[in-house]
Amino acid sequence: MLQHRRREGPMDKWAAMEGHRRNVKTKGIGYRCWKARYGYLFLVPVFLIMGIFKYYPAATAVVMSLFEWNGFNYREFIGLGNFISMWSDDTFVASLRNVAIFAAADIVKTLTVPLLAAELVYWVSSRKAKETYKFIFVLPMVVPTMVIILMWKWIYNPTFGALNLALNALGGHSNHAWLGSADTALISIIGVGFPWIGGIAFLIYLGGLQAIPDELHEAARIDGAGVWNRFLRIDLPLIAGQMKVLIILSLIQSMNSFENVLVLTNGGPGNYTMVPALHLYQQGITYNRMGYASAIGVIMFALIFVLTVISYQFKKEGKRHA
User: What range(s) does the ABC transmembrane type-1 domain occupy (predicted)?
Assistant: First the structure.
């Protein structure tokens, strides 16, 4: 006799799925790792490279910061001696002051011109014109940083630089050494890249603006809100997250300032443009004070880490109250 099979109902399917889930859980994390073993194998070279070229040198720098070390055969343990003498080093103190000025200037630049450019491009009605402006503003990203720095070094040249030539063409008689004067060297480095439109900040702002629903702007327009009110009440609050991320990136980039100062002024005149990364380089490479240079690197890492944590907590508080 034929036996009739009972049709499976929803409860049977649920029980089967639940049994399968429990079966997977009982197999444990070891089984899941074994199944993903080939994926982990592909990660091994990445971890090896990072360990050899990042984590091992970083750990070595922390250890060597406790020694007086010339980078070769001489090494003497001095504990916190490098860190103590660092704060009586006028050059290091001046470098901290300068990098704080650079950081403040970078934050102001990041929060103003790229945001204005993104707003203007966002409100362009023609799609073709919008894409053209985006291409123009993003183009500087593909130019090597060193090329831009060298171009600005030529602009600031006192003899045949474009800046003095332009001032002379306007009726002045300028042969000012913009990078060689204590009064203008720092501000000249800050001015590199003017008008500071192109780059990642512009793209992040534009992406944030494009994520805003059109209905919000339309409702504000119907209510009679002008461009300025729409910017303050809609755009600015909704891209606050992007702004905070860019502040963190600006702080990190400013603390790591090195190649621009090295090429333009080498920290001079005097110590008016010295920054911690360049001071580290000079102490370690030029004067063979590798232990002291390692201590500067540890302090720089600690400062960047603390600033990043503070900025991240500030961002979380902003989200909580939003």
Answer: 96-311
The whole-number pLDDT of residue 27 equals 56
pTM for this predicted structure: 0.81
CATH H-level superfamily of 89-321: MetI-like (1.10.3720.10)
> Which of 104, 119, 142, 105 lies closest to 242, judged by CA?
119
Distance CA 99, CA 105 (A): 10
* CATH 1.10.3720.10 domain range(s) in the chain: 89-321
Q: Are 66 and 77 in contact (CB under 8 A)?
A: yes
Q: Report how far residue 159's alpha carbon sits from residue 37's, in angstroms, rounded to the nearest whole number.
A: 64
Which tens digit of pLDDT belongs to each residue from 39-78? 888 888 999 999 999 999 999 999 999 999 988 888 899 9
**Residue corresponding to tokens 């990043």:** 308
Predicted confidence (pLDDT) at residue 129 exceeds the cutoff of 70: yes
Q: Which two tokens stand for residue 29?
A: 């994390």
Which residues are CB-contacts of 55 (< 8 A; sequence separation ≥ 6)? none
